[in-house]
Amino acid sequence: MTKPDEHVDVLIIGAGLSGVGAAYHLQAAFPERTYTILEARDTIGGTWDLFRYPGVRSDSDMNTLGYRFRPWTQAKAIADGASILRYIRDTATEAGIDRHIRFGHRVVRAEWSSADARWTVEAVHDGETVRLSARFLYACSGYYRYEAGHTPHFPGVERFRGTVVHPQHWPDDLDHTGKDVVVIGSGATAVTLVPAMAERAARVTMLQRSPTYIIALPSEDAIAGALRRLLGDRRAYPITRWKNVVVSTLFYRLSRRRPRVVRSIIRRATARLLPPGYDVDTHFKPRYQPWDQRLCVAPDGDLFAAIRDGRASVVTDRIEEFTETGLRLASGTELAADIVVTATGLRLQALGGVRLTVDGRDVALPETMAYKGMMLSGVPNLAFTIGYTNASWTLKADLVSEYVVRLLRHMDAHGYDRCVPANDDPTVAERPLLDFQAGYVLRAIDEFPKAGSRPPWQLGMSYAHDLLKLRHGRVDDGTLRFSSRSAARETVPMTDTNTDGTTP
């Protein structure tokens, strides 16, 4: 392989929410070390820049989706996409992280050499191959495939005279004012789109095959606002953050242990928000249990308000075919449409599609096992971030970054330049990495690394447990194997300075 153009201590893939957070933790802990972020797109923000459909927002509260080290100070806890994007970019700018990002660099291959104890990474930039080497590789590219979302084949779609659009590729010039809109889907994207488009459309119909759990939550956290006024932003933030972690964790555990109770609670709350006599069980009674899939959030009950006002409706049926003017359903009903939005899901991609090689051998991701949900068996000096499916992504991303800092400090303190998880216990059985029944997960889970039947080969879904394990647990736990080359180290020792460490 051609000699790399540049060497850095840590190479981060992705300049989205996770990548910016990872860079902050690294440079705060190791100000003398070098790092670079390679970002395939031309701007900071990742998913929050990619999705630009009407009403795009988070379905997690920003007191937990925000970074541990940077308080969220706006009134709205369930924030719009533009505000979240600005928060990420402001974080990068204020910390000087933006100066370490190389935009338009799509990483396609990474090759580990044990002889050199380093990764050589290939990225494509303006059609040319760029090579960098790094001591440690940190993949923060999430797991969405940015090139295309999931759109099933619909019979007759080619004869439809209107506009068909997937939310992942929303046209800047699409005007839905006064139009009849059909949104196919019932997940978080559809639940966001319907009330947002109903503000200007003539009529919006959410067409679903089966219902989803939808809960109404206030867009503003009254307790958080009171605490900010009383204590100030920085002191109020950790209290609000922990309050929301505890509440969401208790609700999740109740959902798993007493699903009938939670189903009943959600149904009663939904019925109160809908018009009298509304057929709740047809349109808002899912077949599955709460948290088999992620719950959708309607901030301030906006979806239900649009239904009450007659600006939106829900139809539960199957599509027979597209017609020239809309859709014909299995029941024989025809829905007129000028615009059809296929909010039919996302496609997943492990490690951003990067091809890994270790000492000349290609790594087949499904044949690896994920150590603590963040490293790969048999793959040295690599970490990746996958957030929670039952809580805010950043809660986990922050903990993974803290663990990477601890790992690098441990290696430096003992003169190691190589660490690799080793699964040599034949009694550990394979499990899917994500134990989650959402369609977008099930369609791609076989392409991902495996989890194991017991720790440390599991992707934790409890913030409290992960906090103890990742922030305070032993680094040298017998599963991670450390080694060093006999040759002298080529880089200076890491400076062991503290991060600000102010909030949980």
TrEMBL record:
Domain of life (superkingdom): Bacteria
Segments for region (Disordered): 485-504
InterPro entries per UniProt: FAD-binding_MO, FAD/NAD-bd_sf, Flavin_mOase-like
GO cellular component, one term: plasma membrane
Keywords: Cell membrane, FAD, Flavoprotein, Membrane, Monooxygenase, NADP, Oxidoreductase
Role played: Monooxygenase able to convert a wide range of ketones to the corresponding esters or lactones via a Baeyer-Villiger oxidation reaction. Can act on long-chain aliphatic ketones (2-hexanone to 2-dodecanone) and on aromatic ketones (phenylacetone and benzylacetone). Is also able to catalyze enantioselective sulfoxidation of methyl-p-tolylsulfide. In vivo, likely functions as a BVMO, but the exact nature of the physiological substrate(s) remains to be established.
Major subcellular site: membrane
Catalytic activity of the protein: ethionamide + NADPH + O2 + H(+) = ethionamide S-oxide + NADP(+) + H2O
Skewed-composition ranges (Polar residues): 494-504
Protein name (database record): FAD-containing monooxygenase EthA
UniProt similarity note: Belongs to the FAD-binding monooxygenase family.
A Pfam family it matches: NAD_binding_8
PANTHER family per record: MONOOXYGENASE, PUTATIVE (AFU_ORTHOLOGUE AFUA_8G02570)-RELATED (PTHR43872)
Essential cofactor(s): FAD
GO molecular function: flavin adenine dinucleotide binding; N,N-dimethylaniline monooxygenase activity; NADP binding
The organism of origin for this protein: Actinoallomurus iriomotensis
